[in-house]
Amino acid sequence: MPDRPRHPLSVVVAGGGTAGHIEPALALADAVKRLRPDARVTALGTARGLETTLVPRRGYPLELVPPVPLPRKPSKDLAALPWRILRSVRRTRQVLRQVDADVVVGFGGYVALPAYLAARLPGTRMPVVVHEANASAGIANKVGARHAAAVAAAVPGSGLDGPVIGMPLRRAITTLDREALRAKARAHFGLDPHAPTLLVFGGSQGARSLNEAVAGAAPELARAGIGVLHAHGPKNTVDVAPSTPPYVAVPYLERMDLAYAAADLAICRSGAMTVAEVSAVGLPAIYVPLPHGNGEQRLNALPVVEHGGGILVEDAELTPEKVVDLVVPLLTSGERLSAMSAGARRTGHADADETLARMVLDAAEGPGAEEGAR
């Protein structure tokens, strides 16, 4: 195969499925465009992922491929896995040729594995860069890392051999001045401009245990003079009586930057993206890891907790009484909140997007790129 043209550079990002995979891919895409305005960036995704909304909104072309979920236990899905992989790899290879890709950047998830495999095929071969967001690497990224030109991780202990650079984040987050935006943010959501404010969110779909515990604590929080901004998820509701300061319940937060600016403390899950954003903006948090899975959410939050920027609470222990016992003392102690905010910021990596972008450019244009393309 002839050497690929160096200009314009064509980058394919594979990070579909959840916001935790898509957002770092888009942050990387933005950073590549800042460093190389002539570069073309194409996103891979599936028809059932959030990328069908998030990617076009950010102005990048999206190419759909069949998803390849990796079953954790023996099942019919496991028996069908080889065929699904083959079908998805074929489609991915077609996309890579169509956009004349120079490098593939994977973030794990349903579309990363076929992207890694398609990039290794004779006649398509090109460098691969892998970014692992979680404290425990997933199967797709373990496979991709075996032949990757470069590997990076968001936090220590992922099990992959590469530098810890942090999570690529949107500039709207890494440059956020919470103090300067606080008045605007609280007015935007209809919050009390002066009351200490708790932000509650459980990811894009919400979290029932967080919803029930915080809603149950609403009367005590109001009596303590605490306002609440609560994103309960589009399929959920919370039943809270009107109060002063206001308890503002919404299905979804379109403006997370304003939500972070409005808040003094958060109660949230500890997915990799959540931990990265919350710590980057210096927001103290009570992290409540998902009670199932491989325990990665607890591991994600540990570095922030160890630096004093957060508190870990097990899902089964989160009751209305626990919320009151933790939140009221924290939100009535400015000194403790300031110390936690500083601790959270110490674990952040505001430049992870451009660090990864430079790794991608080096992989695409370095000496190994031409060899890998043949």
UniProtKB/TrEMBL annotation:
It is found in: Cell membrane. UDP-N-acetyl-alpha-D-glucosamine binds at residues 18-20, 134, 170, 204, 297. Its main location: membrane. Keywords: Cell cycle, Cell division, Cell membrane, Cell shape, Cell wall biogenesis/degradation, Glycosyltransferase, Membrane, Peptidoglycan synthesis, Transferase. Its EC number is 2.4.1.227. Residues 197-355 form the Glycosyl transferase family 28 C-terminal domain. Residues 11-152 form the Glycosyltransferase family 28 N-terminal domain. It catalyses: di-trans,octa-cis-undecaprenyl diphospho-N-acetyl-alpha-D-muramoyl-L-alanyl-D-glutamyl-meso-2,6-diaminopimeloyl-D-alanyl-D-alanine + UDP-N-acetyl-alpha-D-glucosamine = di-trans,octa-cis-undecaprenyl diphospho-[N-acetyl-alpha-D-glucosaminyl-(1->4)]-N-acetyl-alpha-D-muramoyl-L-alanyl-D-glutamyl-meso-2,6-diaminopimeloyl-D-alanyl-D-alanine + UDP + H(+). It is a peripheral membrane protein. Pathway: Cell wall biogenesis; peptidoglycan biosynthesis. The keyword NAD does not apply. SUPFAM superfamilies: UDP-Glycosyltransferase/glycogen phosphorylase. InterPro entries: GlcNAc_MurG (IPR006009), Glyco_trans_28_C (IPR007235), GlycoTrans_28_N (IPR004276). One of its GO terms (molecular function) is glycosyltransferase activity. HAMAP family: MurG (MF_00033). Cell wall formation. Catalyzes the transfer of a GlcNAc subunit on undecaprenyl-pyrophosphoryl-MurNAc-pentapeptide (lipid intermediate I) to form undecaprenyl-pyrophosphoryl-MurNAc-(pentapeptide)GlcNAc (lipid intermediate II). Belongs to the glycosyltransferase 28 family. MurG subfamily. This is UDP-N-acetylglucosamine--N-acetylmuramyl-(pentapeptide) pyrophosphoryl-undecaprenol N-acetylglucosamine transferase. It comes from Actinomycetospora termitidis.
